[in-house]
Amino acid sequence: MNQESTKESNHIDNKQVVVSVENPLPHGVFVQLGDGTKGYIRRREMSWDGDIDPRELVEPKQKIKAIILENAEHNRRAELSHKLTLPDPWEEFVATYTKGDVILGVIRDIHPKGIFIRVWLGIDGFVLNQQLATWCIENSGETFWIGDHIEAIITRLDRKNKKSVRLSIRSRMTQQAMVGSVVKQISEDSTVQPNGDISLANLAEEGDIEERLNSLITAKVADHVGTILVLEDQDDLREPLVQWLSERGFHAVGACDVTAAIQMIENQYFNVCLVDLDLPDVDGIAFVKDLRQAKYDGHIIVMSGSDWLNERASEIEQLGVIAALFKPLDFAEIDTILQRIGTGKAPSLKQNLTPATQVKRKSFQKLAQIMQNHTSLQQRLQLGLDHIVELTKAEDGIIFYQNATSQTITVLAQVGRTVLNGDALFSLDDSPVDDVFRGETPIFETNVTKSAYFRFRKLLQLLPFESCIGVPLGYELSSNYALFLFHRKAQAFHQYRLYDAQSTAALLTVALENQLFEERMQRINTVLLSGQLAAGFGHEVNNKLTALEAQLRNLKLACTQIERETDSATWESALTQAKATQDGILGTVHDLKKTVHLFQSLGKEAHSPSFEPNKVIEQTYALLRPVLGKEKTGLTLNLASDLPLAPGSMIRLQQAVLNILLNGLQQMLPFDVKERRLEVVTKLTELNEPRPIKISVIDTGKGIHKRLWDKIFTMGYSTREDGTGLGLYIARSLVESLGGRLYVEQSLILMGSTFVIELPIEEA
After folding, report:
1. Which of 274-283, 304-313, 680-689 has the highest average model confidence (pLDDT)?
2. Mean of the per-residue pLDDT values for the chain?
3. In the chain, what are the domain boundaries?
4. Rounded to a whole number, what is the largest CA-CA distance in the chain?
5. Of 37, 210, 476, 615, which residue is least crowded by CB atoms under 10 Å?
6. What homologous superfamily does CATH list for 219-342?
7. Which CATH code is given to the segment(s) 363-607?
8. What CA–CA distance (Å, rounded) separates 702 from 664?
9. Which of 215, 209, 212, 171 lies closest to 193, judged by CA?
10. How far is CA 127 from the centre of its chain?
11. Distance of alpha carbon 228 from alpha carbon 196, whole angstroms
12. Do the bridges between strand 676-684 and strand 633-638 make them parallel or antiparallel, or are there none, so unpaired?
């Protein structure tokens, strides 16, 4: 026994130690104990969550606590657990929740028999298919997506068994329906009780759910995984691994060396390859590289000893490998990876970016944020030009603009010390600048005077240069804008700088399109308001006129009766009725005046430099009231009394709120519900925040899948077949034009959504 092995064998299992992080990787962390012993902590042992990239938790040279699981022996690293040194979340969970409680969760996995919900750190609850809704859901994968937020009732909580948490969305829906809330109970003979209990039969069925879920992999998952090739030279590992995969329900075959593996790959497609990197006849990494060069597009999982993975970690990450397994293999880890492949959620080892690439990416991310903020267009273009000039090391940068009517070309923004010859601008309509305006191939020249002098002669009159890059801005804007970069040295720009310029041009286009949208909205605001006012005004006035006509007819009948009657008692009764009708007419006329005043006020206030958010919401409700009545939908306003003024035009907020309310209404219409409800809540948060005015718009619709929370604001995207994909896009654009923010704060599948508008306050 060597010295290191002797030293390592002295450690006691389950002993807590302090270790130093050597190399955190996506699949685990290589560490060193205080006496120099080498150790390894698997990804699932880093946290109770079990699925967090270790690089997000620790960094090299950091000291952390760990529990020894297995001592180092036979040239193997010691295995440790960091999560066992952390508080067990189960104790806090059972102290917080009990059976019958309502709990929020995130869908973690979808199984043919139900769905798994992450309800607490490292704790999943299970919902049987019959407990997913108050109606039968045949395909849970269509209604629920992984990552969706749900609300359910805890129907079973075994405090001694950490895996025994059962949930019911159906019970929660029934509970809400019984208080006149979201969903109408479809099944009249339902056994679900208001307190969330489920029948004894269901409880008995849930008792053995773990065994039934873990018996075999589903045929659908196995089909998606496809055939698995195991390349491993050790027979005593390869054969049992292939057998275990087959018993789990997968189709797996083994290869003992690279030659056999290549022959098998040539004759059959393998969607997954498990490759041992420490092969006797060839370097496993070289084999994986050859696979990628041969255009193999399947999933590659590598496996090897700890030191091998540690030493060549950077090479492994560059190969598009989805996972790296540390020997001895963890079969539960393999099963989890294959399950994810089978459900379309294959993991990935993130490639390490070079420092230069990281700087460039952060720079572009910052520029992207600038392009969408609310500084002036000139400032945004100037900042974008500064960015690309610095990135490409250009001496001069210019954004040209061509007037669509006169065809004259002007300089919109400039960076650099060169003094331009203004007279030369008048002749640029016959130059490469005009070529870019007309959408031709981007300009990339690195030795103008030698290879393209005649073509560039008029542009050279504007400023001297040898290297030049030119790209259009905004292909949807008829290319009236162009970005040019110049340098007086030949060969000053690499081809990659053209790509950088095109990327920056795309971001500058965002600023231009935002400005164009602003201008268009300014022009159509009056039209939008007029159209809405006309529709609302027409409906309200027609209602009043109909009532007025009916009351006048009643008055006429009363007067006729008075003329005919001679009996004093009957005459007095008819006179009383006539007076009542007269009062009704006066009331209707008064209401009509109020209606006219309301719509006149809306038209006037559209041009105000600031507005009262609560008043805008009340007026929006007045506009929407006829539609709400027709669709039998209630709208509740809970408006804070202390809201200050917000800057900008009230019509923009009105249109945004109207679009969100209509979107919520449309989401609820297909639902067979007892009561459709909308609610608007306003409140004032901390005044030192940039957007302290908060407006929440709540509906009781079917909810929005989590991964679509941002996508629904994309122009043209709609979750409805008959949707235009413009309503929420316009709403967000309008809110952002007010310096605000619009986002989905919460959306529970089958329960409803909450949209939030945040606005700044008017400066004193």
Report:
1. 680-689
2. 78
3. 3-85, 89-212, 219-342, 363-607, 610-759
4. 130
5. 476
6. Response regulator (3.40.50.2300)
7. 3.30.450.40
8. 9
9. 171
10. 25
11. 44
12. parallel
